[in-house]
C-alpha cells in the first residue's frame, strides 16, 4: 500500500511540475539575466567608505542618515517611485533613440555612451520599441554623500520587457529579463530637484 501511495504522489508531482513549466517556460528556477537594457558604464564610481552599520535591507545606515541630514525631505519610498518612472522612461527613450529626452535624465558621460550606441544602431538602419511586461522592481542598494552635498543613490532594478526590432534582415521580437544597478546623483543644495543617472552596471537577481 505504501509503495502504491508513493507512486501516486510521484505521478501527481510530475503533473504539477509539468503544468508549472508549461506556464512559466524557461523562467522556472533561477535563470541568468540578459544584458542591461541600456549601455553599461565603463568607468567605476569613486565611493565614500562603507560604514559597518547596516539596515535590515543591507543599505548603509550612515549613508541614508547622511542623505537625510543634508536633505530632511528625502523619502526612500518616494525616491524609488520616481526612480522606477525614470527607469522606464530612459529604457524606452534609448530604444526609440530619443536623445532630447535622454539629455534631461542622464549625466554627460552616460549620455555620450548612449549616443554612441544609438548612432551605431542608426548606422545599421535598425529601430527598436520596448514594452514592459510587468512594472519593474526597484530596491535601494546603496546611499551615500560624497563631499559636502553630492548625494548618490544606487537602485537595483529587475525588469521584464518585450523588445521589437526592425532592420534590413526583417523584424524580430525578444522577451528579456534584466537585473541592473543604476546610480543616480544630485547636489542636495541645488534648487533643481531632479536626479541624474550617472552609472549603469549589470547585477545578479
Walkthrough of the structure:
With 205 residues, this protein is an alpha+beta fold. The chain folds into 2 domains: 1-31; 34-202, Nuclear Transport Factor 2, Chain: A (Roll), CATH 3.10.450.240. 37% of the residues lie in helices and 29% in strands. It is built from 5 helices and 5 strands, in the order αααααβββββ. It has helices spanning 2-24, 61-70, 76-96, 99-103, 108-123, and strands at residues 127-132, 137-146, 150-167, 170-187, 196-202. It is elongated.
Brief description of this entry?
By secondary structure, the chain is α+β, with helices and mostly antiparallel strands. The chain has helices spanning 2-24, 61-70, 76-96, 99-103, 108-123, and strands at 127-132, 137-146, 150-167, 170-187, 196-202.
Secondary-structure blueprint of this entry?
Blueprint: H1 2-24, H2 61-70, H3 76-96, H4 99-103, H5 108-123, E1 127-132, E2 137-146, E3 150-167, E4 170-187, E5 196-202
Distance between the termini: 44 Å
CATH architecture of the largest domain: Roll
The amount of helix comes to 25-40%
- Give the overall form: elongated
Mean pLDDT metric: 80
How large is the radius of gyration? 21 Å
Q: SS-based structural class?
A: alpha+beta
CATH topology of the largest domain: the name is Nuclear Transport Factor 2, Chain: A
Please mark out the parts with pLDDT under 50 across 5 or more consecutive residues, or reply none.
1-32, 48-58
Beta percentage is: 25-35%
Order of helices and strands: HHHHHEEEEE
CATH class of the largest domain: Alpha Beta
- Sheet with most strands: 5 strands, antiparallel
- Please work out how many helical segments DSSP would assign: 5
